[in-house]
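Hi L., both proteins are below.
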Amino acid sequence: MRKNLLLAVFTAIVMLAGTSCARHGKGELPADVIMNPNTASGESDPEALPVIEFATDFHDFGKLMSGEKVTYSFKFTNKGKGLLLISKVSTSCGCTVSEFPKEPIKPGEGGTIDVSFDSEGRIGLQNKTITVFSNTQPSTNLLRIQASVVDVKDM
C-alpha cells in the first residue's frame, strides 16, 4: 500500500515537472505573455502597453494571372510606451507566407510584415486573412489581402 502511494506521488511529480517545462514553439514564450503589464491581480498600467498601428490593414493585388506570385509589406509603428513583441503571424491558407520582426520594437519605431501570395491553382476572387499575435491589447490584429485571379486561357 505504502509502495503504491509513493509510486503515485512520484508519478504525479514527474508529470507536473514535465508539463511545467513544456515550451512554446522553439523554446519561447508567446509574446502576449512576455512584458505584458497586466498582472494576475487584474491591475494593469494601460499607459505602459505597446500599441501596434498599421498604415493600412488591407491590400488589393488587383487582377493576377494564375501562377503569378506577388508580395506586399504591411507597415506598422509601435505607438505605445512599451516594447512591442510579435510572437507569430498566421495565415488563412498555405498560399500566403509572412515574414515579421522577431526582435522587440521600441516605442516610436516600426517595421513590416511581408506577405506573399501564390496564385498557382487558384481562380476567381481570393480573400485571405493574416493574424498578427503580439503583446498588445487586444493581442491579435487582422490584416487582409485580396486578388482577382484569372486563368491564362481566359486572357
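That was the first. Here is the second:
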Amino acid sequence: MIDPCTEFQTAIRAALIEDAEVSALVPAAQIRAGSTRPDKLPTIILAGPQTLHLGRASGGSYLTRVYIDLHIWALVDGEDIARRIGAAVSVALWDTPACEAIGIDDYTRPSFAFMRDPDPARAYCHGVGTVEGVIRWSV
C-alpha cells in the first residue's frame, strides 16, 4: 500500500538532493526525514507530516492533503547560512516535485520563518517552512 506522506516526502527530498544550489550548501546525507534535532550542521530535516483526507477521486483513488515541515538548522554565521539554504530550497521546490508513485494535484511552495537561538553563547539558527500538496494515491 502507498503512504501518501512517505511518497510526497521522498519526492521533496529527491528534488532537494538533485538541486545543485541546495547540494552546495547541505550534503545529501544531511537532508533527511526524522526528528527536528540535528546531529550534524547544516541540515534540512523533513518532519511532522500531517494529513487531511479529502475523499475519493476517479478510478478508485484517494485524495489526501499532506503538509510537511522543512526544518533548516545552521551554525556559525547561522542566520546568514540558514537564510541562504532557505532561498535555495525555495527555488528547488518552486515547481511541483516529480513522483511516479503518486499524483500531486495541487502544490504550495514553502515559505520560511527564521529564528536565532536565544542563548547568545550558541550560534544556531533555525528556519521552519511548510510545503503542502494534494496527493492522489491508490491502495
